[in-house]
Amino acid sequence: MRLAAQRVMSADGRLGVNAFCYLHGPVVWLDQPPSEVTNARGQLVNYTSEVPPGGNKVLSYLDIVAPDDTPSRQLHRKINDSIDLFHEQPLPLHVQIQEISFEFNVDPRLAPGWREEMVVLLRAALAARAPEGQPH
Amino acid sequence: MRIMSRAFTRYLELLDQLLWRRAVLGDLSEDEEERFANALNDCRSVMTATEESDLSQIIAQRKATADGLRPLDLVDVKPPTSEGPLREKAA
Predict the structure, then answer these.
(1) Residue B70 pLDDT
(2) Strand partners, A64
């Protein structure tokens, strides 16, 4: 599964967060995701969009790769709880926590508040995971 | 790793929120700025000298991280199909 959330700015200056959920099927791994997951985006099953996608400037992004059946609360806990470990880490972040990996980066204009931005993108990524009413 | 007080962690949370709001939403109203300032001062007033020192280091480190960043220079891709990259270099 690949969850991607990104803050974009349209040509006319509108800001918004777009998030996408791609699935890879019943593939499991223990640490590094296999190439069939890293090299393929997966099948798009759901997305949320505040600004119509396409040609917008990307101001921040969070890409999460994890097995399809990883519970959302586990993703949230592991990623959210790790943020404070990155005080001295340069951006972009490339992080691996067991079978979950993620990449995060921001444009300099959002850099002062990047920790909060990561939390916002994480929420958006998880919200895009499934249509409302389908629990994870 | 040292155990930080609730005031210390709350201070950092509030600082993150304040900086994010300024960066994403633009200037805050005077009332909002004042509320943040008061809350930050409340937290800082009960920190230990060690935490004050740690705070200065963390803020300096964050500034260095922000100053070292380069523009992303990326655009998103339409449509969000299953093929190709999610974003690409800006033209």
Answers:
(1) 86
(2) A3, A102
Give this complex's ipTM: 0.85
Domain that holds residue A95: 2-127
Range of the domain at B17: 6-74
Distance CA A89, CA B61 (A): 9
Residue A18 CB partners (closer than 8 Å, separation 6+): A5, A6, A8, A47, A48, A49, A50, A51, A53, B76, B80
Length of chain A: 136
The pLDDT of residue B59: 84
What's the domain count of chain A?
1
How close, in Å, is residue B18 to chain A by CA atoms?
Answer: 8
Mean pLDDT of B43-53: 91
B86 falls within a domain: no
Q: Which chain B residue is nearest to residue A1, measuring alpha carbons?
A: B82
- Chain-centroid distance of CA A121 in Å reads 7
**Cis amide prior to B79 (ω within 30 degrees):** yes
Q: At A125, is the secondary structure helix, strand, or coil? A: helix
Q: Is A93 inside any structural domain?
A: yes
Does residue A21 sit in helix, strand or coil? strand
Of A15, A47, A107, the CB nearest to B71: A107
The three-point CA angle A113-A118-A123 to 5° equals 130
The pLDDT value recorded for residue A71 is: 94
* Range list of H helices, chain B: 6-25, 30-45, 49-67
Q: State how many domains chain B has.
A: 1
> B65 and A91: CB-CB below 8 Å?
yes
